[in-house]
Protein backbone atom coordinates (compact mmCIF):
# COMPACT_ATOMS: atom_id res chain seq x y z
CA UNK A 1 0.00 0.00 0.00
CA UNK A 2 1.25 3.49 -0.87
CA UNK A 3 0.83 6.44 1.52
CA UNK A 4 1.00 10.07 0.37
CA UNK A 5 1.87 12.59 3.08
CA UNK A 6 1.36 16.30 2.41
CA UNK A 7 4.24 18.06 4.17
CA UNK A 8 3.66 21.50 2.66
CA UNK A 9 3.93 24.17 5.38
CA UNK A 10 0.71 25.99 6.28
CA UNK A 11 0.39 29.48 7.70
CA UNK A 12 0.94 29.65 11.45
CA UNK A 13 1.39 25.86 11.57
CA UNK A 14 -2.29 25.24 10.87
CA UNK A 15 -3.48 22.38 8.71
CA UNK A 16 -5.25 23.78 5.65
CA UNK A 17 -6.30 20.28 4.59
CA UNK A 18 -8.00 19.57 7.92
CA UNK A 19 -9.68 22.98 7.87
CA UNK A 20 -11.16 22.37 4.41
CA UNK A 21 -12.35 18.96 5.57
CA UNK A 22 -14.01 20.56 8.59
CA UNK A 23 -15.71 23.26 6.49
CA UNK A 24 -17.07 20.63 4.12
CA UNK A 25 -18.38 18.45 6.96
CA UNK A 26 -20.36 21.28 8.59
CA UNK A 27 -21.27 23.12 5.36
CA UNK A 28 -24.98 23.21 6.20
CA UNK A 29 -24.48 24.96 9.56
CA UNK A 30 -21.87 27.37 8.20
CA UNK A 31 -24.02 28.29 5.21
CA UNK A 32 -26.96 29.10 7.47
CA UNK A 33 -24.78 31.40 9.60
CA UNK A 34 -23.38 33.07 6.46
CA UNK A 35 -26.89 33.77 5.11
CA UNK A 36 -27.86 35.39 8.42
CA UNK A 37 -24.68 37.48 8.35
CA UNK A 38 -25.33 38.73 4.80
CA UNK A 39 -28.83 39.89 5.73
CA UNK A 40 -27.69 41.92 8.74
CA UNK A 41 -24.52 43.49 7.34
CA UNK A 42 -24.11 46.98 5.99
CA UNK A 43 -22.62 47.82 2.60
CA UNK A 44 -19.17 48.73 3.93
CA UNK A 45 -18.46 45.44 5.73
CA UNK A 46 -20.00 43.01 3.24
CA UNK A 47 -16.71 41.42 2.23
CA UNK A 48 -14.98 40.86 5.58
CA UNK A 49 -14.85 37.47 7.31
CA UNK A 50 -17.43 36.15 9.72
CA UNK A 51 -17.50 34.46 13.13
CA UNK A 52 -19.52 31.26 12.93
CA UNK A 53 -20.96 29.22 15.79
CA UNK A 54 -21.94 25.56 15.57
CA UNK A 55 -24.02 23.86 18.30
CA UNK A 56 -21.86 21.49 20.29
CA UNK A 57 -24.29 18.61 19.80
CA UNK A 58 -23.76 18.85 16.04
CA UNK A 59 -19.99 18.41 16.18
CA UNK A 60 -19.96 15.48 18.59
CA UNK A 61 -17.90 12.54 17.40
CA UNK A 62 -18.71 8.84 17.99
CA UNK A 63 -16.72 7.24 20.81
CA UNK A 64 -16.28 3.73 22.15
CA UNK A 65 -17.59 3.08 25.66
CA UNK A 66 -17.81 0.08 27.93
CA UNK A 67 -21.14 -1.69 27.83
CA UNK A 68 -23.20 -2.39 30.99
CA UNK A 69 -22.41 -6.12 31.09
CA UNK A 70 -19.46 -7.97 32.62
CA UNK A 71 -17.76 -7.84 35.99
CA UNK A 72 -15.40 -4.90 36.50
CA UNK A 73 -13.28 -4.07 39.53
CA UNK A 74 -11.80 -0.57 39.36
CA UNK A 75 -9.98 1.51 41.96
CA UNK A 76 -9.12 4.97 40.65
CA UNK A 77 -5.61 6.37 41.21
CA UNK A 78 -5.35 8.59 44.26
CA UNK A 79 -8.29 6.91 46.00
CA UNK A 80 -8.11 7.05 49.81
CA UNK A 81 -11.59 5.89 50.74
CA UNK A 82 -12.54 2.76 48.81
CA UNK A 83 -11.03 -0.66 48.20
CA UNK A 84 -11.86 -3.30 45.62
CA UNK A 85 -15.32 -4.77 46.26
CA UNK A 86 -16.84 -1.70 47.99
CA UNK A 87 -20.16 -0.41 46.66
CA UNK A 88 -20.32 3.33 45.90
CA UNK A 89 -23.47 5.18 46.94
CA UNK A 90 -25.37 7.09 44.27
CA UNK A 91 -24.74 10.87 44.55
CA UNK A 92 -27.57 12.81 46.19
CA UNK A 93 -29.17 15.96 44.77
CA UNK A 94 -29.78 16.96 41.16
CA UNK A 95 -26.20 16.96 39.91
CA UNK A 96 -23.64 19.67 39.59
CA UNK A 97 -24.52 23.09 38.25
CA UNK A 98 -23.23 24.61 35.06
CA UNK A 99 -21.22 27.75 34.74
CA UNK A 100 -22.43 30.74 36.76
CA UNK A 101 -24.26 33.38 34.80
CA UNK A 102 -25.79 36.72 35.63
CA UNK A 103 -28.72 35.07 37.42
CA UNK A 104 -26.61 33.05 39.83
CA UNK A 105 -25.85 29.31 39.90
CA UNK A 106 -27.67 27.13 37.37
CA UNK A 107 -29.86 24.19 38.35
CA UNK A 108 -29.97 22.69 34.85
CA UNK A 109 -26.94 20.42 35.14
CA UNK A 110 -23.84 20.61 32.98
CA UNK A 111 -23.66 22.33 29.61
CA UNK A 112 -21.25 22.93 26.72
CA UNK A 113 -20.66 26.22 24.93
CA UNK A 114 -21.21 26.41 21.19
CA UNK A 115 -18.12 25.85 19.05
CA UNK A 116 -17.13 29.17 17.44
CA UNK A 117 -14.54 29.91 14.77
CA UNK A 118 -13.83 32.65 12.21
CA UNK A 119 -14.13 32.38 8.45
CA UNK A 120 -11.60 34.26 6.36
CA UNK A 121 -12.76 36.68 3.65
CA UNK A 122 -12.20 34.09 0.90
CA UNK A 123 -14.02 31.36 2.83
CA UNK A 124 -16.90 33.69 3.65
CA UNK A 125 -17.39 34.72 0.01
CA UNK A 126 -17.08 31.08 -1.08
CA UNK A 127 -20.12 30.20 1.05
CA UNK A 128 -22.01 33.35 0.03
CA UNK A 129 -21.73 32.58 -3.70
CA UNK A 130 -21.80 28.79 -3.54
CA UNK A 131 -23.89 27.36 -6.40
CA UNK A 132 -24.19 30.64 -8.33
CA UNK A 133 -23.17 31.48 -11.91
CA UNK A 134 -23.85 33.84 -14.78
CA UNK A 135 -26.72 32.26 -16.75
CA UNK A 136 -26.23 31.26 -20.39
CA UNK A 137 -22.53 32.21 -20.57
CA UNK A 138 -21.25 31.31 -24.05
CA UNK A 139 -17.88 31.18 -25.77
CA UNK A 140 -17.53 33.93 -28.34
CA UNK A 141 -15.22 34.20 -31.40
CA UNK A 142 -11.70 35.49 -30.90
CA UNK A 143 -11.38 39.14 -30.03
CA UNK A 144 -7.59 39.22 -30.09
CA UNK A 145 -4.60 36.93 -29.82
CA UNK A 146 -4.07 37.86 -26.18
CA UNK A 147 -6.25 35.04 -24.85
CA UNK A 148 -4.22 31.91 -25.51
CA UNK A 149 -3.69 28.55 -23.90
CA UNK A 150 -0.38 26.69 -23.83
CA UNK A 151 -0.94 23.21 -25.25
CA UNK A 152 1.40 20.33 -26.05
CA UNK A 153 2.68 20.38 -29.61
CA UNK A 154 4.62 17.17 -30.07
CA UNK A 155 8.13 16.24 -28.98
CA UNK A 156 11.58 17.69 -29.51
CA UNK A 157 15.17 16.70 -28.78
CA UNK A 158 15.76 20.04 -27.08
CA UNK A 159 14.04 21.29 -23.96
CA UNK A 160 14.20 21.83 -20.24
CA UNK A 161 14.30 18.96 -17.71
CA UNK A 162 10.86 19.77 -16.31
CA UNK A 163 9.25 18.90 -19.67
CA UNK A 164 11.10 15.66 -20.34
CA UNK A 165 8.99 12.78 -21.62
CA UNK A 166 10.18 9.77 -19.59
CA UNK A 167 8.19 7.20 -21.58
CA UNK A 168 9.28 8.43 -24.98
CA UNK A 169 12.92 8.88 -23.88
CA UNK A 170 13.10 5.31 -22.56
CA UNK A 171 11.48 4.02 -25.75
CA UNK A 172 14.09 5.83 -27.84
CA UNK A 173 16.89 4.46 -25.64
CA UNK A 174 15.56 0.92 -25.95
CA UNK A 175 15.32 1.23 -29.74
CA UNK A 176 18.85 2.63 -29.95
CA UNK A 177 20.28 -0.19 -27.82
CA UNK A 178 18.57 -2.78 -30.04
CA UNK A 179 19.87 -1.10 -33.18
CA UNK A 180 23.46 -0.76 -31.93
CA UNK A 181 23.71 -4.25 -30.43
CA UNK A 182 22.09 -6.17 -33.29
CA UNK A 183 25.11 -6.33 -35.71
CA UNK A 184 27.50 -6.92 -32.81
CA UNK A 185 25.36 -9.78 -31.51
CA UNK A 186 25.25 -11.32 -34.96
CA UNK A 187 29.07 -11.13 -35.20
CA UNK A 188 29.36 -12.55 -31.67
CA UNK A 189 27.06 -15.43 -32.54
CA UNK A 190 29.10 -16.24 -35.61
CA UNK A 191 32.36 -16.07 -33.62
CA UNK A 192 30.98 -18.38 -30.90
CA UNK A 193 29.75 -20.88 -33.48
CA UNK A 194 33.12 -20.78 -35.25
CA UNK A 195 34.92 -21.35 -31.94
CA UNK A 196 32.69 -24.29 -31.06
CA UNK A 197 33.24 -25.78 -34.50
CA UNK A 198 37.00 -25.37 -34.17
CA UNK A 199 37.02 -26.95 -30.71
CA UNK A 200 35.00 -29.94 -31.90
CA UNK A 201 37.78 -30.89 -34.37
CA UNK A 202 40.29 -33.56 -33.55
CA UNK A 203 43.35 -32.48 -31.67
CA UNK A 204 45.51 -33.01 -34.70
CA UNK A 205 43.31 -30.87 -36.93
CA UNK A 206 42.75 -27.98 -34.48
CA UNK A 207 44.32 -24.61 -35.25
CA UNK A 208 45.45 -23.07 -31.94
CA UNK A 209 46.09 -19.74 -33.57
CA UNK A 210 42.58 -19.63 -34.98
CA UNK A 211 41.09 -20.55 -31.58
CA UNK A 212 43.05 -17.76 -29.87
CA UNK A 213 41.88 -15.25 -32.48
CA UNK A 214 38.21 -16.30 -32.06
CA UNK A 215 38.44 -16.02 -28.28
CA UNK A 216 39.96 -12.56 -28.58
CA UNK A 217 37.23 -11.57 -31.03
CA UNK A 218 34.48 -12.86 -28.71
CA UNK A 219 35.94 -10.92 -25.78
CA UNK A 220 36.14 -7.76 -27.89
CA UNK A 221 32.52 -8.11 -29.08
CA UNK A 222 31.23 -8.72 -25.54
CA UNK A 223 32.99 -5.56 -24.37
CA UNK A 224 31.39 -3.61 -27.23
CA UNK A 225 27.92 -4.88 -26.24
CA UNK A 226 28.55 -4.00 -22.59
CA UNK A 227 29.80 -0.58 -23.65
CA UNK A 228 26.50 0.43 -25.28
CA UNK A 229 25.09 3.08 -22.87
CA UNK A 230 21.71 2.45 -21.23
CA UNK A 231 20.56 5.96 -22.12
CA UNK A 232 22.21 8.72 -24.11
CA UNK A 233 21.51 12.41 -24.61
CA UNK A 234 20.50 11.46 -28.14
CA UNK A 235 17.56 9.50 -26.68
CA UNK A 236 16.02 12.34 -24.64
CA UNK A 237 12.70 13.74 -25.81
CA UNK A 238 10.95 16.82 -24.43
CA UNK A 239 7.35 17.97 -24.62
CA UNK A 240 6.94 21.10 -26.72
CA UNK A 241 4.35 23.76 -25.85
CA UNK A 242 2.71 26.15 -28.26
CA UNK A 243 0.30 29.05 -27.74
CA UNK A 244 -3.16 28.12 -29.01
CA UNK A 245 -5.76 30.90 -29.36
CA UNK A 246 -8.84 30.22 -27.25
CA UNK A 247 -12.46 31.27 -27.76
CA UNK A 248 -13.23 34.13 -25.40
CA UNK A 249 -15.91 33.83 -22.73
CA UNK A 250 -15.55 37.46 -21.72
CA UNK A 251 -18.66 39.23 -20.48
CA UNK A 252 -19.87 42.66 -19.47
CA UNK A 253 -22.40 43.37 -16.73
CA UNK A 254 -24.43 46.59 -16.90
CA UNK A 255 -25.54 47.72 -13.43
CA UNK A 256 -28.54 50.05 -13.83
CA UNK A 257 -29.83 51.81 -10.70
CA UNK A 258 -32.78 54.17 -10.31
CA UNK A 259 -31.78 57.21 -8.20
CA UNK A 260 -34.96 59.26 -8.74
CA UNK A 261 -36.78 61.13 -6.01
CA UNK A 262 -39.26 58.28 -5.49
CA UNK A 263 -36.40 56.05 -4.36
CA UNK A 264 -36.13 56.62 -0.61
CA UNK A 265 -32.81 56.32 1.18
CA UNK A 266 -33.83 52.85 2.38
CA UNK A 267 -34.63 51.80 -1.20
CA UNK A 268 -31.25 53.07 -2.39
CA UNK A 269 -29.42 51.25 0.40
CA UNK A 270 -31.14 47.99 -0.56
CA UNK A 271 -30.27 48.54 -4.24
CA UNK A 272 -26.64 49.26 -3.35
CA UNK A 273 -26.40 46.11 -1.24
CA UNK A 274 -27.81 44.07 -4.12
CA UNK A 275 -25.27 45.52 -6.55
CA UNK A 276 -22.44 45.07 -4.06
CA UNK A 277 -23.29 41.39 -3.79
CA UNK A 278 -23.27 41.22 -7.59
CA UNK A 279 -19.92 43.05 -7.74
CA UNK A 280 -18.29 40.67 -5.22
CA UNK A 281 -19.74 37.64 -6.99
CA UNK A 282 -18.31 38.66 -10.37
CA UNK A 283 -14.96 39.68 -8.87
CA UNK A 284 -14.52 36.31 -7.16
CA UNK A 285 -15.68 33.91 -9.87
CA UNK A 286 -14.86 35.56 -13.20
CA UNK A 287 -11.70 37.11 -14.64
CA UNK A 288 -13.04 38.31 -18.00
CA UNK A 289 -16.06 40.30 -16.76
CA UNK A 290 -16.23 44.08 -17.08
CA UNK A 291 -18.71 46.21 -15.16
CA UNK A 292 -20.49 49.27 -16.52
CA UNK A 293 -22.33 51.41 -13.95
CA UNK A 294 -25.36 53.45 -15.05
CA UNK A 295 -27.41 55.75 -12.82
CA UNK A 296 -30.61 57.37 -14.01
CA UNK A 297 -33.47 59.68 -13.05
CA UNK A 298 -34.89 61.71 -15.93
CA UNK A 299 -31.50 61.33 -17.65
CA UNK A 300 -29.01 58.48 -17.54
CA UNK A 301 -25.23 58.66 -17.13
CA UNK A 302 -22.42 56.16 -17.14
CA UNK A 303 -20.53 56.70 -13.88
CA UNK A 304 -17.56 55.32 -12.00
CA UNK A 305 -17.86 52.67 -9.32
CA UNK A 306 -17.43 55.20 -6.51
CA UNK A 307 -20.00 57.59 -7.94
CA UNK A 308 -22.44 54.74 -8.54
CA UNK A 309 -22.45 53.73 -4.88
CA UNK A 310 -21.99 57.09 -3.14
CA UNK A 311 -23.32 59.92 -5.34
CA UNK A 312 -26.40 61.74 -3.94
CA UNK A 313 -27.83 62.93 -7.26
CA UNK A 314 -31.64 62.64 -7.65
CA UNK A 315 -34.54 63.81 -9.85
CA UNK A 316 -37.57 62.53 -11.77
CA UNK A 317 -37.91 59.09 -13.39
CA UNK A 318 -37.54 58.11 -17.05
CA UNK A 319 -36.34 54.49 -17.18
CA UNK A 320 -36.03 54.39 -20.97
CA UNK A 321 -33.13 56.86 -20.77
CA UNK A 322 -31.05 54.16 -19.03
CA UNK A 323 -32.03 51.44 -21.51
CA UNK A 324 -31.17 53.70 -24.45
CA UNK A 325 -27.77 54.47 -22.91
CA UNK A 326 -27.06 50.76 -22.37
CA UNK A 327 -27.94 50.06 -26.01
CA UNK A 328 -25.62 52.84 -27.23
CA UNK A 329 -22.73 51.58 -25.09
CA UNK A 330 -23.18 48.06 -26.47
CA UNK A 331 -23.13 49.31 -30.06
CA UNK A 332 -20.03 51.44 -29.43
CA UNK A 333 -17.85 49.22 -27.21
CA UNK A 334 -19.18 45.68 -26.87
CA UNK A 335 -19.93 43.88 -30.16
CA UNK A 336 -22.46 41.08 -29.64
CA UNK A 337 -20.29 38.56 -31.47
CA UNK A 338 -17.42 39.04 -29.02
CA UNK A 339 -19.09 39.66 -25.64
CA UNK A 340 -21.61 38.01 -23.36
CA UNK A 341 -23.95 40.84 -22.36
CA UNK A 342 -25.79 41.03 -19.02
CA UNK A 343 -27.96 43.69 -17.40
CA UNK A 344 -29.02 43.97 -13.75
CA UNK A 345 -31.56 46.71 -12.97
CA UNK A 346 -32.85 47.92 -9.61
CA UNK A 347 -35.80 50.31 -9.30
CA UNK A 348 -38.87 51.02 -7.18
CA UNK A 349 -41.09 50.55 -10.26
CA UNK A 350 -42.12 54.22 -10.46
CA UNK A 351 -41.84 55.63 -14.00
CA UNK A 352 -42.97 58.58 -16.10
CA UNK A 353 -46.36 58.28 -17.82
CA UNK A 354 -46.22 56.25 -21.05
CA UNK A 355 -42.48 55.59 -20.67
CA UNK A 356 -43.05 52.00 -19.51
CA UNK A 357 -44.39 51.13 -22.99
CA UNK A 358 -41.22 52.57 -24.51
CA UNK A 359 -39.12 50.45 -22.13
CA UNK A 360 -40.95 47.30 -23.18
CA UNK A 361 -40.40 48.03 -26.88
CA UNK A 362 -36.71 48.81 -26.31
CA UNK A 363 -36.22 45.51 -24.53
CA UNK A 364 -38.16 43.32 -26.95
CA UNK A 365 -36.88 44.85 -30.20
CA UNK A 366 -33.33 45.95 -29.38
CA UNK A 367 -31.81 44.79 -26.11
CA UNK A 368 -33.07 41.26 -25.42
CA UNK A 369 -32.02 39.82 -28.81
CA UNK A 370 -28.44 40.83 -27.87
CA UNK A 371 -28.40 39.96 -24.15
CA UNK A 372 -27.59 36.69 -22.46
CA UNK A 373 -29.63 37.57 -19.36
CA UNK A 374 -31.58 40.47 -17.85
CA UNK A 375 -32.30 40.60 -14.10
CA UNK A 376 -34.78 43.15 -12.76
CA UNK A 377 -35.43 43.70 -9.04
CA UNK A 378 -38.22 45.99 -7.89
CA UNK A 379 -37.74 47.41 -4.41
CA UNK A 380 -41.15 48.23 -3.01
CA UNK A 381 -43.55 46.94 -0.35
CA UNK A 382 -46.52 48.25 -2.35
CA UNK A 383 -48.44 47.00 -5.37
CA UNK A 384 -46.59 46.85 -8.67
CA UNK A 385 -46.86 49.76 -11.07
CA UNK A 386 -46.86 50.03 -14.85
CA UNK A 387 -43.16 49.18 -15.32
CA UNK A 388 -43.57 45.76 -13.66
CA UNK A 389 -46.65 44.96 -15.75
CA UNK A 390 -44.91 45.91 -18.99
CA UNK A 391 -41.89 43.81 -18.01
CA UNK A 392 -44.21 40.82 -17.51
CA UNK A 393 -44.87 40.84 -21.26
CA UNK A 394 -41.09 40.74 -21.82
CA UNK A 395 -40.86 37.66 -19.58
CA UNK A 396 -43.44 35.90 -21.75
CA UNK A 397 -41.33 36.47 -24.88
CA UNK A 398 -37.98 35.66 -23.22
CA UNK A 399 -38.81 33.30 -20.32
CA UNK A 400 -35.28 31.86 -20.01
CA UNK A 401 -33.32 35.10 -20.30
CA UNK A 402 -35.47 37.70 -18.50
CA UNK A 403 -36.08 37.39 -14.75
CA UNK A 404 -37.79 39.77 -12.32
CA UNK A 405 -38.19 39.61 -8.54
CA UNK A 406 -39.52 41.85 -5.79
CA UNK A 407 -37.57 42.97 -2.73
CA UNK A 408 -39.56 44.31 0.22
CA UNK A 409 -36.88 44.55 2.91
CA UNK A 410 -33.16 44.02 3.39
CA UNK A 411 -33.67 40.40 4.44
CA UNK A 412 -34.96 39.61 0.93
CA UNK A 413 -31.76 40.69 -0.86
CA UNK A 414 -29.71 37.52 -0.50
CA UNK A 415 -32.52 35.00 -1.25
CA UNK A 416 -33.53 37.02 -4.32
CA UNK A 417 -29.91 37.28 -5.48
CA UNK A 418 -29.42 33.51 -5.17
CA UNK A 419 -32.63 32.87 -7.07
CA UNK A 420 -31.64 35.16 -9.93
CA UNK A 421 -28.14 33.75 -10.35
CA UNK A 422 -28.54 30.13 -9.27
CA UNK A 423 -26.68 27.54 -11.28
CA UNK A 424 -28.69 26.11 -14.16
CA UNK A 425 -28.49 22.44 -15.09
CA UNK A 426 -27.76 23.28 -18.72
CA UNK A 427 -26.60 26.37 -20.58
CA UNK A 428 -28.30 27.47 -23.76
Automatic annotation (TrEMBL):
Q: Where is this region: Disordered?
A: 84-111
Gly residues biased stretches: 93-106
Highest taxon, organism lineage: Bacteria
> Hey, which family's this protein in?
Belongs to the UPF0229 family.
Name of the protein: UPF0229 protein HZU72_07470
Amino acid sequence: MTYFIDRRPNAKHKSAVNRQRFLERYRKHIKRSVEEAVNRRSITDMERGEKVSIPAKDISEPVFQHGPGGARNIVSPGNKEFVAGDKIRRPSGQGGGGGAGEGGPSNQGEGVDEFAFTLSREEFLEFVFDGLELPHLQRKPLKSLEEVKMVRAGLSRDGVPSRISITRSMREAYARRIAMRAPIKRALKEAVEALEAEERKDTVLRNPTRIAELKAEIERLEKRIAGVPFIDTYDLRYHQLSAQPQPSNQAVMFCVMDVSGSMTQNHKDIAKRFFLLLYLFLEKHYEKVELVFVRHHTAAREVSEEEFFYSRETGGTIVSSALNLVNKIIEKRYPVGQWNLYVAQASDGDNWDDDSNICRDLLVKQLMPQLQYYAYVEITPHDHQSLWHEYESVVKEFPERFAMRQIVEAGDIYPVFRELFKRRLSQS
